[in-house]
## 1
Amino acid sequence: MATPDGPPVGDDGAMGIGSVSAVWRHPAKSMQGDTVAAATIGSTGMLGDRAWAVRDEEKGGIRGAKKIGALMDLKAQFASEPTADDPTPAIEITLPDGTVVGSGDPDVNERLSAALDRKVSLWPLQAPSDLDHYRRGAPDSDDLDAELRGMFGRLPDEPLPDFTPFMHVMEFESPPGTYLDAYPIHVLTEQSLQALQVLNPASTVDVRRFRPNLVLDLGDGSGERFPELGWTGRRLRIGEVVLDVVYECPRCVMITRPFADLEQDRPLLRSVVKEAGQNVGVYANVVQAGVVRPGDEAELLPA
């Protein structure tokens, strides 16, 4: 049913807000990923997303590009598609010099360490019960404020994010059993990217900087610069999947990193902090599992 002056509303009160423009999967934490034609989403996130990660063998702990920025210059692809029975199949990693190393190659750790200028080892997901594997490594600074400002790229006069919604991962690099930052699914809108481009005409506001799972296009009728920031506490139905939007996504130094064909862009983060309250995109838990594809309709469920 269509309303006279707004988006369509279903019989259950769900309001159509747009559709999926892209589904992104990143086989390895902080490495480049790619779009996929379909993705299976379960309670712990997207099948095959962040299935591998590197461990810092000097300071300990799984590491992402908040700490090892050069990870974003690597691109990971699966050698075969992940399945429910084999959620972490082998990956092939393209290094900055164009050579490829496989996760099963005997020299994979040495070659990754050379590319990252840091002694690392490559790991598939381990059991959630292996808490030591997921525990945070040693910080780079004994000054907690300095440590956090380095990770989130905040200037001395800028506020740090509110970490209350992330207390469950303060002890760990990621929720045990995953290599995710905090929550299973990250949703971003085309409208937020467009708003940032208008605010930063000299920047290249590329979706790859933000590493979402699902990108939604709300068309011309959203009326907001960063519309998804208003969805916290609401539920989204996207294709077969229902998501519970739990918190905005605070952006960190990663969106400023140079990688692939993108140059370093510190002003972009300054704009996010000032104009978007530090947040672009939202995190969500999975209420109903299923498959999501580009073109699937997105609906905001009744509060």
## 2
Amino acid sequence: MTLADLAARLGCRLEGDGAIEIARVATLDQAGAGDLTFLANPKYTQAAQQTKASAIILSENASPAPCAMLRSAHPYRSFAEALALLARNERPPDGVHPTAVVATDARVGRGASIGAFVVVGAGADIGDRVVLHPHVVLGPGVRIGDDSILHARVSVRERSVLGRRVVVQDGAVIGSDGYGYVTDPDGVHHKIPQQRVVVVEDDVEIGANTTIDRPAVGETRIGRGTKIDNLVQIAHGVRVGEHVLLVAQVGIAGSSTIGNHVVLAGQVGVAGHITIGDRARATAQTGIPNSVEPGATVSGYPAIDNRDWLKASAVFRNLPELRRQVRNLLARLDALEARLKQNGPS
């Protein structure tokens, strides 16, 4: 693709030779002839001055680079869009692989690709241009929206619903039974049947080996545009809002509500039956036992305001020395009190 064509499709302002052919994308230090790179963080300005790339995406006010430039109001986003434009098309061929097992009453949309050893249950509905990679299993009554992609070994349990343009990475399980038991007076745990559904709205991405559970009543719902990383656990009856970011190893207990545009960093744990307000953020390894106000940023366990957590964590490393000083002060105070008792006030 010529640089001029790329600039037009990205909506960037071109400075330099538009006839340059761009074949790949690369980092600032690894780029060479035919490569496109980008500068979004000012701390890499020096590296941009030394890049061997044929072209670079940078902000409107960034210093000129020694190659052709695409000026963008959002360089990182433009670079992501360029990646999509220049990516190799690895879509498998349309049609149903001979080893796939598709129920006779299932509907398969136009241009869909059903890979090797895929199983599609009774009454399932697969939209147009959907890709099911090898060993995907869809239970009875599952619905998959147009242009969705399910990678190898994904399992979608009965009656679960996935919207349009949903991407599910390898090994994820959608609609597994929620963790629900009732304990009798003898301490025996009896399973509560998990009969309801998981609904995943449009443009959601779900990472590898993530699990999203079905509830006994109601539904588990993932709002549109939400992006879920690998190894995330979303329990039964949870409602995740729109455009949420859930980073690796996040765990959300049952019946909690996550607002819109919330960010939960790696290994955050959320207790059950609480609400995380819109645009709240939790830093890595935060434990959240209570509801969080909209817009708040919390850290630590139990979660507190991030600024308070930073002040407290700065003290932690000094606790042994503080303990020693307190013990010395107490010993001196005891000695002083003993002398006062022995000698009386002077």
## 3
Amino acid sequence: MNIQEIALSNNQRKKIQKAVKDDSVLLVEENGDIVINVAAYKTFKQELENDPVEEIVGEDVLDFSAEYFVFN
């Protein structure tokens, strides 16, 4: 399993949870980590006119060759 871990501030974490409300894309772990399924996120953002996670964390941060993004 290929995972990209990214450190976030509390505000960024809250913004991601508000921007991505699809349960097939985003999962919140008991410890507060946010897990995003990359394949599901790609499909999700095709339906939108923007890239919500990239706008929050930055364009060059995400590695789309990973299977999951884990924000902690």
